[in-house]
Each structure stands twice: as structure tokens, then as C-alpha cells.
From TrEMBL:
<keyword id="KW-0479">Metal-binding</keyword>
<comment type="function">
    <text>Catalyzes the isomerization between 2-isopropylmalate and 3-isopropylmalate, via the formation of 2-isopropylmaleate.</text>
</comment>
<dbReference type="InterPro" id="IPR004430">
    <property type="entry name" value="3-IsopropMal_deHydase_lsu"/>
</dbReference>
<dbReference type="InterPro" id="IPR001030">
    <property type="entry name" value="Acoase/IPM_deHydtase_lsu_aba"/>
</dbReference>
<keyword id="KW-0456">Lyase</keyword>
<protein>
    <recommendedName>
        <fullName>3-isopropylmalate dehydratase large subunit</fullName>
        <ecNumber>4.2.1.33</ecNumber>
    </recommendedName>
</protein>
<feature type="binding site">
    <location>
        <position position="413"/>
    </location>
    <ligand>
        <name>[4Fe-4S] cluster</name>
    </ligand>
</feature>
<comment type="subunit">
    <text>Heterodimer of LeuC and LeuD.</text>
</comment>
<keyword id="KW-0100">Branched-chain amino acid biosynthesis</keyword>
<dbReference type="GO" id="GO:0046872">
    <property type="term" value="F:metal ion binding"/>
</dbReference>
<feature type="domain" description="Aconitase/3-isopropylmalate dehydratase large subunit alpha/beta/alpha">
    <location>
        <begin position="16"/>
        <end position="463"/>
    </location>
</feature>
<dbReference type="InterPro" id="IPR015931">
    <property type="entry name" value="Acnase/IPM_dHydase_lsu_aba_1/3"/>
</dbReference>
<keyword id="KW-0411">Iron-sulfur</keyword>
<dbReference type="InterPro" id="IPR036008">
    <property type="entry name" value="Aconitase_4Fe-4S_dom"/>
</dbReference>
<comment type="pathway">
    <text>Amino-acid biosynthesis; L-leucine biosynthesis; L-leucine from 3-methyl-2-oxobutanoate: step 2/4.</text>
</comment>
<dbReference type="Pfam" id="PF00330">
    <property type="entry name" value="Aconitase"/>
</dbReference>
<dbReference type="GO" id="GO:0051539">
    <property type="term" value="F:4 iron, 4 sulfur cluster binding"/>
</dbReference>
């Protein structure tokens, strides 16, 4: 029996199950036409709306799209007047496009506003078994609840707006199982950085990832969102986790979640969404929780990450001349010396925010480290959503951050990408809870080190990258 035959006879994966119910037909090239349950649109959707306008097409199912303002919103105020003049039109376009097509908008001054990948789960727009898309690579986040969710390009967004469907090649499937128990101080962010560092930023290219194993089952829903968020940084098309009781409890009662009989039916369906015991994956990876330490990036790709007690790599010891050049280039950009201890790297700023790590548990973890202490470096905290901000204030976290010397800002993508003007200066180094450390990501010439919220807080206190395990001893 060849591989394809044996696959067809084997059980189904979580991914197969969700894909199958959304597949309308296949074309001669083997691509599938998929029904899209929910489409989320941030400011970048103007490209797609322009394509629609060029052909004078209406939005086919306006009720299936939700607009959210996040990338360009100011974090100092909630008014359009506070938006940087040169980007104001981008937010204006989101307002106009959604209004024109009868699409609901969670805009700048909406109490539900936030980063699209925080708002979706928070509002119950994200549910197990749904097929969700957004013109944004971190759409993989939503897979944490068992949705099949992935980022798409502008022409695909236009196709979804015009038809509520999308042509896709079925990706190969890979399962990353993490077994054992995470040590204190090790979080979902460390799992993400650690698997990407070991396997490479390209390792999951062309694959849909399912995360499984005892560690994943033990993770909170918020931590699962962090992990799935970074699937794309390892090249994955999407990241999924089978829904369980935690997922169901999380979704129940949210604004867009089903209610009453519909909820009962939905829950019954959600409980069928797991990979069958005999399901086959194209690639299986198993990692042991004991091998995952608090991890930080030292370079310019999320794969350039190491356990915090390590040292900056030495190009002289690289596996090939090409690799040596690449390492040297990263060291030069980051202003680091080969062999330097990671804990000796001094930072100028910290940033706690983004769709990766700015939910309640993240803010609580950072605040726990900062409570009653004073930071050595400045920085800011931008909650993942306005509702997270309100909740954090109710818990007094804003006061902890401010007394520690950090700025407490409004919600948005902010310094994750700086499109709203929250930028670092050239040469400045930031300890950041975000997901990308590409050259210039937080501003031209800026240097980013990715890590968990508690680790960012620890760096804020000491002024250099710090092992959270040493602080808590
Ligand atoms: C601007 C947007 C399209 C982009 C993405 O696709 O991810 C951004 O959110 C990012 O994180 O780089
Ligand atoms: S917070 Fe950062 S990663 Fe997330 S959507 Fe915004 S820019 Fe992209």
C-alpha cells in the first residue's frame, strides 16, 4: 500500500475534519474551494476593498466580515485627531469601506477595540471548527481554539469579500507534540521560540501544524493563543489545538458565541474535533518539556533564539561558511560580540504588547515581576485589547506598571511594528513580548529581543537580559 492509500484509509486529523466540511469542490489542479465562515479585516484591507471597487463588486456576505482597527491606531488617545496625519487616511478608509458595504466595524473608539487576533477570541468570533481568514499572517492565532485559521494575501481577501470562498492548496500536515511538564518560568512563548530555534524558521513551510501532548493540554487557552500565534514564524500555514473543556468554557457566554440549543449542538460538534488515534501526519515531531528553558532571541529571525543561560553564537564555529556569514551579519546588526553571555546584553527599552503576549495572563505575569519595584529602563505596556485594558485596571495592574516607571498605553499593534508611529530609535535595543525580530521591525535600525512577558519585566528591572529563574530565587 502506498503512502497516499494508507493515508486515505487512516483516521482523520483535526485539520482534515475541519477542512472537509468547508470544501465545496476541487478544480483540475487539485485546489479546493473553501467556504469561509469568518473574515476579519484590519486597516490593511484597503487593498482588497480597492480591488472590489475597480470591478464595482458588492461584498457577498457582509455579515461574515468584521473590521477591526489595530495597526495604525494611536496608543496615547482614542480619537482620529490623535492619529498621525500621514496615516490617518488608512483608518479613515477602514471606516469608509466597512460603512459602504454594511460590514460591522470595531473601530478606534469602540470599547471592544483591540488587536484583531485578541478581539476575535475575546468576542467569541473565534470558535472551534470555523474556517477563519484575515489579511494578516498571525491569523494562525485563532487555531488555538480549534478553528482552521490562516493569513491570506490582498487578492485572496478580495476573493473572500466578493464570494465568501477561497481557493487553497491543501497543506501537508505536521504534529508537534510536547510531552512532560514545563518547569517554573517556562511559558508558551518559550515553547514557540524553542521549537522554531531547533527546527528552523522554515521547518513548517507548507505544513498545517497541530500542537498536541500533555504540555499543550495543560496550557491555558491564552497560552495556547500565544503558541499558535507564532506558528507562522516557524513557516507554518496555520497552528491548531484540539478543543477541550477549557476551550468550551472559554468560548461560552462570549458576545458572538452560540447560545441555548445552538450552543448544545455546537459543543457536541466541537467535541468531535480531534485527531483520531490512527490519523497519520506527514511529519511528527516530539519535544520534551524538560528541554525547554526560558528563551530569548539574540539575532534577526525568531529562529536565532537560545536558552537565556547561553552565549551569543560564534561564527567561527558555524557549520558552514554560508552560515558563518549569516551569523556575523546578525551579530553586526544586533551590535553583539560572539561568545558574549546573553545575560550581559543591555537593553534601552522594553515593550509589553502585541497579539502574541498582551492578554490578561501576560500582563499579570509581567506585573507580578514588577510589583513594588522600579525599572532601570523605560518602556511601555499596550494591552491586547481595550477590554484587557479595563480588566487590568480593575486589577490594579496599570498602577504596578506605572509605579515601576513604564507607560500604560491604549491598545493596538503599537511598537510590535510601529505603523502608528510608536517606534524605537536607530541602534536602540528592546526586550519585547512580540513575535518578530526582523531588521528594522520596531523602527529603522532598531534591535529587538523576543521573550516572554515575565522575562521582559525582568529585563526592565535589571536593564539587561535576565534569567527569570534567578530573579524569583
Ligand atoms: C501588516 C500585516 C499585514 C502584518 C502581517 O501580515 O502579519 C503585520 O501584522 C505583521 O505582524 O507583520
Ligand atoms: S500585534 Fe504585531 S504581529 Fe500582531 S497583528 Fe499587530 S503587527 Fe502583526
Amino acid at each position: 500500500m502506498d503512502h497516499i492509500e494508507s493515508r486515505a484509509m487512516a483516521g482523520k486529523t483535526l485539520f482534515d475534519k475541519v477542512w472537509q466540511v468547508h470544501e465545496i469542490c476541487q478544480n483540475n489542479e487539485g485546489q479546493s474551494l473553501l467556504w469561509v465562515d469568518r473574515h476579519l479585516a484590519h486597516e490593511g484591507s484597503f487593498h482588497a476593498f480597492n480591488k472590489l471597487a475597480e470591478r464595482d463588486l458588492p461584498v457577498r456576505h457582509p455579515e461574515c466580515t468584521t473590521g477591526v482597527a489595530d495597526h495604525y491606531v494611536p496608543t496615547i488617545s482614542r480619537t482620529l485627531a490623535a492619529v498621525q496625519p500621514k496615516v490617518r487616511h488608512v483608518i479613515r478608509q477602514l471606516i469608509d469601506n466597512t460603512q459602504r458595504h454594511g460590514v460591522s466595524l470595531i473601530g478606534l473608539d469602540d470599547p471592544r477595540q483591540g488587536i484583531v487576533h485578541v478581539v476575535g477570541p475575546e468576542q467569541g468570533l473565534t470558535q472551534p471548527g470555523l474556517l477563519m481568514v484575515c489579511g494578516d499572517s498571525h491569523t494562525s492565532t485563532h487555531g488555538a481554539l480549534g478553528a482552521l485559521a490562516f493569513g491570506i494575501g490582498a487578492s485572496e481577501v478580495a476573493h473572500v469579500l466578493a464570494t465568501q470562498t477561497l481557493w487553497q492548496d491543501k497543506p501537508r500536515q505536521m504534529r508537534i507534540s510536547i510531552e512532560g511538564q514545563l518547569a517554573p518560568g517556562v511559558t508558551a512563548k518559550d515553547i514557540a521560540l524553542s521549537w522554531i530555534a531547533r527546527l528552523g524558521a522554515d521547518a513548517a513551510r507548507g505544513y498545517a501544524i497541530e500542537y498536541a501532548g500533555s504540555v499543550i493540554r495543560d496550557l491555558s487557552v491564552e497560552a495556547r493563543l500565544t503558541l499558535c500565534n507564532m506558528s507562522i514564524e516557524g513557516g507554518g500555514r496555520c497552528g491548531m489545538i484540539a478543543p477541550d473543556e477549557k476551550t468550551i468554557d472559554y468560548v461560552k457566554g462570549r458576545a458572538f458565541a452560540p447560545q441555548g440549543d445552538q450552543l448544545e449542538q455546537a459543543v457536541e460538534y466541537w467535541q468531535s474535533l480531534f485527531s483520531d488515534a490512527d490519523a497519520q501526519f506527514d511529519l511528527e515531531i516530539t519535544l520534551n518539556a524538560d528541554d525547554i528553558a526560558p528563551t530569548v532571541t539574540w539575532g534577526v529571525s525568531p529562529e536565532e533564539a537560545l536558552p537565556i543561560d547561553g552565549r551569543v553564537p560564534d561564527p567561527a564555529q558555524a557549520s558552514s561558511p554560508g552560515k558563518a556569514l549569516q551569523l556575523q551579519d546578525s551579530l553586526d546588526y544586533m551590535g553583539l560580540q560572539a561568545g558574549q553571555k546573553l545575560t550581559q546584553i543591555r537593553v534601552d527599552k522594553v515593550f509589553i504588547g502585541s497579539c502574541t503576549n498582551a492578554r490578561m495572563e501576560d500582563l499579570r505575569a509581567a506585573a507580578d515581576v514588577l510589583r513594588g519595584k522600579r525599572c532601570k529602563v523605560p518602556g511601555f505596556v499596550s494591552p491586547g485589547s481595550t477590554l484587557v485594558k479595563v480588566q487590568a485596571e480593575a486589577e490594579g495592574l496599570d498602577k504596578i506598571f506605572m509605579s515601576a516607571g513604564l507607560e500604560w498605553r491604549e491598545s493596538g499593534c503599537s511598537m510590535c511594528v510601529g505603523m502608528n508611529g510608536d517606534l524605537m530609535a536607530s541602534g536602540e535595543r528592546c526586550a519585547s513580548t512580540t513575535n518578530r525580530n526582523f531588521k528594522g521591525r520596531q523602527g529603522p535600525g532598531s534591535r529587538t529581543h523576543l521573550m516572554s512577558p515575565a522575562m521582559v519585566a525582568a529585563a526592565a528591572l535589571t536593564g539587561h537580559l535576565t534569567d527569570i529563574r534567578d530573579l524569583s530565587e
